[in-house]
């Protein structure tokens, strides 16, 4: 009996602890702070409620921030811990400079997938990974991928099944194949997963994960209590299926990597064709100089990380872009005209064309501004007590930055709700140089910014240009409700929003 009472008391303590921090912040900082608290769920409840009420997971937060522009911070909770979300760029800048003082919240609960990849790792291991792969993501290297991206987009766009189908399926099938071919090579890109396109599996997996994390109360509470054991104790069918899908994905990738490793073991002159070769070369031939050493599990998880990070994110951007084009026929026509002029009858898009597609670039930046694929960063847990300017963060608290808050701030972007492609230069930077560069950071900034941002933009520009060359996009009038959901990324739900009319 005593243990039950102690257990209940401990639970009450863990549940109320963040509430005390929330109240403390409000008393200490008054209007500088917006507060939100929900036992155990916190931010996750705000997102799921907003989706249910508004059809948009981030609308409630956007409105709250808009109505409290004087606020510097949102203080809420993430499971059992306080979560401090900064809203102003000056805080964000310092937060990013201190990135080594934090570890990341394990969004994808299943530790087998991405915990050892670059997105989640920290310290010496992360530094080593970024150094090993960094050169592969530089613009000058990435432009070599342009012919392949043209190829993939052309192939996928030539065989559309009907005039109405989800843009997300098409987009992720393109972005997934691009990542597979670029980083893992043609041999691995050709493999199918149980007879299915592996990229569609990634989208399915991320959407289902996201829905469990942000919408299932049962899963959220179970996760708060059990952490990574959530899949093994009292799993429901949906959790079992998801765990099984992860296992299939891991086995698929493991087999592919093993195959390549066998080939490379007997190879005398090692020429790096792709990212996997770089990693396997370091593992097979230089691991004694690596500190900490590379493991096979790391190679597997790094591969899944790049596959996830490179497929779903860019696919969301392309999907949002298709939706806004369908919704704004005049803008679509204006952008189409630019593409016709710049390509001037050529069908293969080159680096030079991309540089000149100023309206396409401006449009994609506006899509990121209005519907950022990452409206918040991954929450980070403080490894030590830290100050971010005048705000004290205690070891163990979560910290985040709301990218969305300034992306639609009137002070930075006049008429913030309006798509205005003229705000941007052709290199994707803002024309108005007086705007704080940290006010809009869709790819984050500083040492832990998005390593794939140039790839994402090159790819999206090519895919959107190719789509408009072939199709006129219209909204599917039969679909009444548009839903913007928090998967792990943020974007449209996977529905038939668009009618694809061949030109
Ligand atoms: C529209 C597309 C994309 C957006 C909006 C985006 C956004 C972001 C953001 C905001 C971060 C920082 C996450 C955090 O620290 O909380 C990030 C990190 C990262 N992204 Fe992207 N990303 C995109 C595409 C890509 C692509 C195509 C790849 C390449 C395969 C990629 C690979 C990564 C990796 C590996 C990291 C971790 C970098 C590190 O911590 O050193 N991303 N991305």
UniProtKB/TrEMBL annotation:
Keyword Transmembrane on entry: yes
Required cofactor(s): heme
Pfam families tied to this protein: p450
InterPro entries: Cyt_P450, Cyt_P450_CS, Cyt_P450_E_grp-I, Cyt_P450_sf, Cytochrome_P450_Monoox
Translocase found in the keyword field: no
Residues binding heme: 450
Gene3D superfamilies the UniProt entry points to: Cytochrome P450
Similarity-based family: Belongs to the cytochrome P450 family.
Name recorded for this polypeptide: Cytochrome P450
């Amino acid at each position: 009996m005593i243990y039950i009472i102690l257990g209940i008391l401990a639970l009450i303590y863990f549940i109320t602890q963040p509430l005390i921090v929330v109240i403390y912040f409000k008393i200490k900082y008054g209007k500088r702070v917006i507060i939100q608290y929900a036992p155990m769920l916190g931010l996750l409840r705000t997102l799921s409620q907003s989706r249910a009420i508004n059809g948009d997971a981030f609308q409630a937060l956007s409105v709250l921030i808009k109505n409290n522009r004087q606020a510097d911070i949102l203080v809420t909770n993430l499971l059992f811990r306080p979560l401090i979300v900064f809203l102003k760029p000056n805080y964000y800048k310092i937060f990013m400079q201190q990135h080594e003082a934090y570890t990341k919240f394990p969004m994808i609960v299943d530790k087998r997938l991405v915990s050892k990849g670059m997105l989640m790792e920290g310290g010496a291991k992360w530094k080593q990974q970024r150094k090993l792969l960094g050169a592969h993501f530089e613009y000058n290297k990435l432009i070599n991928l342009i012919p392949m991206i043209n190829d993939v987009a052309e192939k996928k766009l030539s065989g559309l099944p009907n005039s109405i189908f989800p843009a997300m399926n098409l987009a992720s099938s393109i972005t997934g194949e691009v990542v597979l071919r670029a980083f893992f090579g043609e041999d691995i890109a050709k493999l199918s997963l149980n007879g299915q396109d592996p990229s569609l599996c990634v989208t399915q997996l991320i959407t289902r994960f996201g829905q469990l994390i942000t919408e299932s109360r049962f899963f959220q509470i179970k996760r708060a209590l059990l952490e990574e054991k959530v899949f093994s104790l009292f799993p429901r069918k949906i959790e079992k299926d998801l765990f099984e899908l992860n296992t299939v994905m891991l086995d698929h990738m493991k087999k592919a990597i093993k195959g390549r490793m066998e080939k490379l073991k007997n190879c005398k002159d090692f020429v790096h064709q792709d990212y996997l070769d770089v990693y396997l070369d370091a593992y097979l031939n230089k691991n004694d100089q690596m500190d900490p050493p590379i493991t096979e599990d790391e190679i597997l998880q790094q591969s899944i990380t790049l596959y996830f990070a490179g497929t779903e994110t860019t696919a969301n951007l392309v999907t949002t872009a298709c939706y806004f084009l369908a919704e704004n026929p005049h803008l679509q026509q204006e952008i189409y005209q630019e593409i016709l002029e710049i390509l001037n009858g050529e069908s293969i898009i080159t680096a030079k064309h991309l540089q000149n597609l100023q309206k396409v670039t401006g449009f994609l930046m506006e899509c990121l501004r209005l519907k950022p694929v990452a409206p918040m960063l991954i929450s980070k847990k403080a490894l030590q007590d830290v100050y971010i300017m005048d705000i004290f963060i205690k070891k163990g608290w979560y910290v985040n930055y709301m990218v969305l808050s300034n992306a639609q701030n009137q002070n930075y972007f006049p008429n913030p709700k309006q798509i205005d492609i003229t705000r941007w230069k052709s290199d994707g930077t803002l024309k108005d140089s007086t705007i704080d560069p940290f006010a809009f950071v869709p790819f984050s900034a500083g040492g832990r910014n998005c390593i794939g941002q140039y790839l994402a933009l090159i790819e999206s520009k090519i895919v959107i240009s190719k789509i408009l060359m072939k199709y006129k996009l219209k909204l599917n009038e039969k679909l009444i409700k548009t839903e913007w959901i928090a998967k792990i990324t943020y974007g449209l739900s996977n529905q038939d929003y668009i009618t694809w009319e061949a030109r």
